[in-house]
Amino acid sequence: MYNYKYNFEQNSQHRIEILEMSDEKCKFSFEGDLSIANAIRRVMIAEVPVMAIHFVDIIENTSPLSDEFLAQRLGLIPLVSYAADSKMYDWEADADSIDDQKTKVVFTLRQKNLNDAPLEITSQHLEPEFGQVGEMAIRPVRMFSPINGKEVGIPITRLGKNQSVHVRCHALKGFGKMHAKWTPINIATFRHEAELLIDHVQAQQLSLFEKQSIRDSCPMNVFAMDANQELIVNAIEKCVFCEECIRCAESIKKPRLIKMQHKKNKYIFTVESAGQLKAVDIVKQALIVLRKKVDEISQDLSFAQQYQQI
Ligand code: SF4
């Protein structure tokens, strides 16, 4: 378990504790109101800004894909977006003095197949025009072969002999509410945390074999045996409410041994990133966006109260 806790404010009823963390996946427990939990989930899906290709200038396209199809495929390539904060939305830029680098990143794709064998065109062929480098660069998410681990890129199209494609792609900042290509999330779900109560009177009557049967009946390894060979709940956050343990207790004629219920105001979130941002960064960004919205609402409310008093 990760020793990471996020308290919203001193004395706040809301708390976040990270349970699992990798670049792609973040699992955390959230303690607080259901409506706030749902707001965090919705903001993660729809309002965390990332970059995506939005306009494509087709200069030449003799590939098997039509222009519209090609543009649509380019738009769905996830772009690493750590630097999205440094970009403006295109509607924020001054129309008279649009500085491309402030609002967008431009990629060029220019390939021609001169061989008999087909040429696979992938996201690796997209060249940034503004010479971005380093980990923070806005670039296509890297994809690796599950067979040999080599970088293969995200497939775009395939060129036959003498076919060519030459396009300029304009990547803009946006968020999932505008179009699904701007959502940084594959999955964002939450569920109640379970509360398991073991009846100690019945537990005293169990043989060692029966205790081990209950421990092993759980597919998520929620139970363990302590040093005194007593059955204990060891990892409650892993419980998925499958009720296998209860069925096992019934089969050994101890139907009241385990009582299971939802823990009030405690939820387990699972967030999987589509690659533009690390999963934990999506959570942090969502909290920042939500905080900003709440601040705006409270400012509006205090203004409305002042107005009523006049
Ligand atoms: S309900 Fe399922 S996951 Fe939860 S403790 Fe029982 S067996 Fe394990």
Automatic annotation (TrEMBL):
A biological process term (GO) from this entry = transcription by RNA polymerase II
The UniProt entry, under InterPro entries, shows: DNA-dir_RNA_pol_30-40kDasu_CS (IPR001514), DNA-dir_RNA_pol_insert (IPR011262), DNA-dir_RNA_pol_RpoA/D/Rpb3 (IPR011263), RNAP_Rpo3/Rpb3/RPAC1 (IPR022842), Rpo3/RPB3_RNA_Pol_subunit (IPR050518)
Any one GO CC term of the record: RNA polymerase II, core complex
Q: Where is the DNA-directed RNA polymerase RpoA/D/Rpb3-type domain?
A: 25-300
Q: Enumerate the GO terms in the molecular function aspect.
A: DNA binding; DNA-directed RNA polymerase activity; protein dimerization activity
Top-level taxon in the UniProt lineage: Eukaryota
> Which Pfam families does this UniProt record tie to the protein?
RNA_pol_A_bac, RNA_pol_L
Family assignment from sequence similarity: Belongs to the archaeal Rpo3/eukaryotic RPB3 RNA polymerase subunit family.
Q: What name does the UniProt record give this protein?
A: DNA-directed RNA polymerase RpoA/D/Rpb3-type domain-containing protein
What is the species of this protein? Answer: Paramecium octaurelia
Source organism phylogeny: Eukaryota, Sar, Alveolata, Ciliophora, Intramacronucleata
